[in-house]
Amino acid sequence: MANDYTNEPVDARVRRRLRELRSERGLTLETVATRAGLDVSTLSRLESGKRRIALDHLPGLAAALGVSSDELLTAPRAPDPRVRGRAHTHDGLTRWPLTRSGPAAGLHAFKIRISAERQEPPKELPVHEGQEWIYVLDGRMRLLLGEKDLVIAPGEAVEFSTWTPHWFGVVEGPVEVIAIFGLRGERVHLHTTG
Predict the structure, then answer these.
(1) Which CATH class is domain 10-73?
(2) How far apart are CA 130 and CA 16, in angstroms?
(3) Per-residue exposure over 168-184, b if at least 16 CB sit within 10 Å of its own CB, e if not
(4) I need a labelling partner for 4 at 20 to 30 A (CA). Which of 43, 112, 168, 184 fits?
(5) Domain boundaries, the chain
(6) Which region, left, alpha or beta, applies to residue 46 given φ > 0 means left and ψ of -120 to 50 means alpha?
(7) Bridge partners of 175?
(8) What CATH number does the domain located at 88-191 have?
(9) How far apart are CA 61 and CA 73, in angstroms?
(10) Cα 15 from chain centre
(11) How many Å apart are CA 38 and CA 41, to the nearest integer?
(12) Does the predicted model carry a pTM greater than 0.70?
């Protein structure tokens, strides 16, 4: 259900916006307080409502968060829920993002097209922290997982610990999958060679 901010008092709206913007940007109270020229305890009391927000606080807080003072005073517009991302190709993988680049509980989802040329695994299979989930939409995907050499067919899914040496490619022809993995897995599979 959408929040209705139209009847929200201005000071409550500014406090809420301070917390939202700070959280969205992954900033600590200390970082924002330093940037705004305030004590951490003062910022904490401003956010919690234990201290009233004065007009002279707004410019420094806005600058610390990288927004205008107006953005602290007004209710946020409802974000566009559509994920808009361009396709990127690297090492035989073309990926389309299905999640935004911001926090998604540490997970990122992609539709991936594995080219027909991606048939030979690297000499050393990658290992890294995390879990991966892959669902095959079309084609037959080859998955090397430790000592196992598996063929994953359309409609099948796999889940595995990425501490196990692994690689995925094709059996023949291109393959389309939906993949979910943590940020480290994204870097290993979509930005490095191998």
Answers:
(1) mainly alpha
(2) 33
(3) bbbeeeebbbebbbbee
(4) 43
(5) 10-73, 88-191
(6) alpha
(7) 114
(8) 2.60.120.10
(9) 11
(10) 25
(11) 8
(12) no
